[in-house]
C-alpha cells in the first residue's frame, strides 16, 4: 500500500501497481457537514479520477484519504451532533460515488487531541467518530472499505487518555493505518523518524514505535489482522554535531504531514543546513541556507530518492542468494562526505556529514539525516508480517528510488514475490 499526494509532479500513471494493492489519494478536506474540499482544488479532482482509472486497469484499488495534519480542523465540529453526522455521511457517500473509489480513509489528527494548532477538539470526539463510522458503514455499498489513520496509541477517551477498549472501532473499520513516523523531526539533538522499537529501553516516549503501537492497539481490543503499519519514504535533515540518535523526547509527535505543500511540481525542497545535501543550486553554493523562493519549507523533510539523486546515498546490489537462504534487500552505503551509522536502539540508519572547512581548531556543525532505507523497512515489514498485521503502507509513493527499492524491500519483508520491471520502468525522485 502507499499514499499518492496531490502536491508533487509525480503522476498517477507513474505508480507501479504491480507493487501496490491499494493506493490512498491524499487529501480531501472536511469543510462543513455538507461538503469536502481539496488540498489542491484545481488539480486534485482530475488526479483522483486518473489514479482510480490507473488502479482499476491494473486490477488494483484506490481509496480517498480525508483529513491529514492540516485538514483536520473541522472534524470535531462536523461530527458533534447526530444531524451534522448524517449530513457529513451524505457528503462522503456523494464523493465516493462521484469518483469511483473503492474506499475511504479518515485521517483525523486527532480525535480528542488538538493535533495541529487551531483544530477543534472535544472530550466526546472519539465517541462521535465511532457513531459517524457506524452510520457511514450502513450507508456505503457492502463492498466499500472504510479505514482510519491513527497514532501509535489508541483513540483518546473522554478523559484524554488512550481508550482501553477500541473493539467497537474494529467492528466497523476494515483496518487502521498506524502512522509510525514523525516521531522525531529536525532537531539539534536528532532522534529516529520511525523507530521499530525501543530496544535500549531509554525513551521517555516508549509509546512511539512500531512494536509499542502493535502492543497498545491489540491490548485495547483491535486485532493485529486489521492493522497496517505506516512506513516513511522520507527522512529529516538536522543541523547537528551528533554522532548518535537521542531516544528521549519530551514534546508531542511532530505533524505526520508537512503543513506547507509545494504546488510547482517539486514537492521536496528541504531546509538545507550544510554543503553536502542541497535543495537547489550547486553544492558549493548552498551552505546553511533555507530555501527562500516563495514556496516555504517542509520542516526539514527530504525524500529517500532525493538522498540518492544528490549522492548522499549510493546503491549497492546484494549478492545473489545462496540455496536455502532468503534474498536480501538492496543495500545503500553513504556517499562522499557522509558516514552511515546504524542506530541499534531504533533499528534505523542515519547519516552524518563532514562539515565543510571544519578542523579540530575551528569545528563547524554538520548535517545529521535521519531516514529509513531498504534494510530498515525490510525489518519493519518483517515485523508486521510476524505479528500478523495486514500489511504496510508507505508515505508516499513518489519518495522512493527510481528502482522502487523501498517498496521492494517492504514487499520482501511481507513475504511477497519480487516484481520484474519492464524495460525502462522506474519511478521515485529520479
UniProtKB/TrEMBL annotation:
Residues 1-417 form the GH18 domain. GO terms for molecular function: chitin binding; chitinase activity. SMART domains: Glyco_18. GO terms for biological process: carbohydrate metabolic process; chitin catabolic process. It comes from the Eukaryota. GO terms for cellular component: extracellular region. Gene3D superfamilies: 3.10.50.10, Glycosidases. This is Glycoside hydrolase family 18 protein. It comes from Athelia psychrophila.
Amino acid at each position: 500500500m502507499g499514499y499518492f499526494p496531490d502536491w508533487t509532479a509525480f503522476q498517477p500513471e507513474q505508480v507501479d501497481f504491480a507493487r501496490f494493492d491499494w493506493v490512498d489519494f491524499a487529501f480531501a478536506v472536511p469543510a462543513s457537514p455538507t461538503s469536502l474540499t481539496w488540498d489542491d482544488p484545481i488539480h486534485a479532482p482530475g488526479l483522483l479520477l486518473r489514479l482510480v482509472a490507473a488502479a482499476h486497469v491494473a486490477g488494483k484499488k484506490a481509496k480517498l484519504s480525508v483529513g491529514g495534519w492540516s485538514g483536520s480542523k473541522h472534524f470535531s465540529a462536523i461530527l458533534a451532533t447526530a444531524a451534522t453526522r448524517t449530513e457529513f455521511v451524505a457528503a462522503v457517500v456523494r464523493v465516493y460515488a462521484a469518483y469511483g473509489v473503492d474506499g475511504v480513509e479518515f485521517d483525523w489528527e486527532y480525535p480528542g487531541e488538538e493535533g495541529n494548532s487551531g483544530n477543534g477538539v472535544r472530550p466526546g470526539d472519539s465517541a462521535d467518530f465511532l457513531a459517524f463510522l457506524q452510520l457511514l458503514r450502513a450507508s456505503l455499498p457492502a463492498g466499500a472499505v472504510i479505514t482510519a489513520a491513527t497514532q501509535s496509541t489508541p483513540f483518546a477517551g473522554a478523559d484524554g487518555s488512550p481508550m482501553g477498549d477500541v473493539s467497537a472501532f474494529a467492528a466497523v473499520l476494515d483496518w487502521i493505518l498506524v502512522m509510525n513516523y514523525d516521531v522525531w523531526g529536525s532537531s539539534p539533538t536528532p532522534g529516529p523518524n520511525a523507530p521499530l522499537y525501543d530496544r535500549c529501553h531509554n525513551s521517555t516516549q516508549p509509546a512511539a514505535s512500531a512494536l509499542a503501537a502493535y502492543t497498545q492497539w491489540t491490548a485495547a481490543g483491535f486485532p493485529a489482522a486489521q492493522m497496517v503499519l505506516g512506513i516513511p519514504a522520507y527522512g529529516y535533515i538536522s543541523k547537528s554535531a551528533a554522532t548518535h540518535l537521542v531516544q528521549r523526547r519530551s514534546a508531542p509527535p511532530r505533524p505526520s504531514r508537512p503543513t506547507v505543500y509545494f504546488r510547482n511540481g517539486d514537492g521536496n525542497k528541504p531546509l538545507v543546513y550544510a554543503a553536502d545535501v542541497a535543495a537547489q543550486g550547486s553544492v558549493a553554493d548552498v551552505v546553511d541556507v533555507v530555501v527562500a523562493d516563495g514556496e516555504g519549507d517542509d520542516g526539514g523533510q527530504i525524500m529517500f530518492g532525493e538522498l540518492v539523486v544528490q549522492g548522499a546515498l549510493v546503491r549497492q546490489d546484494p549478492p545473489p542468494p545462496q540455496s536455502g537462504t532468503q534474498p536480501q534487500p538492496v543495500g545503500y552505503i553513504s556517499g562522499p562526505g557522509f558516514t552511515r551509522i546504524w542506530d541499534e536502539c531504533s533499528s534505523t540508519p542515519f547519516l552524518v556529514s563532514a562539515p565543510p572547512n571544519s578542523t579540530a581548531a575551528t569545528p563547524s556543525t554538520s548535517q545529521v539525516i535521519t531516514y529509513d532505507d531498504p534494510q530498515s523497512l525490510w525489518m519493519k515489514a518483517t515485523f508486521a508480517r510476524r505479528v500478523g498485521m495486514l500489511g504496510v503502507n508507505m508515505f508516499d509513493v513518489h519518495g522512493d528510488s527510481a528502482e522502487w527499492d523501498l517498496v521492494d524491500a517492504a514487499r520482501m519483508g511481507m513475504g511477497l514475490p519480487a516484481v520484474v520491471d519492464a524495460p525502462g520502468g522506474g519511478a521515485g525522485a529520479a
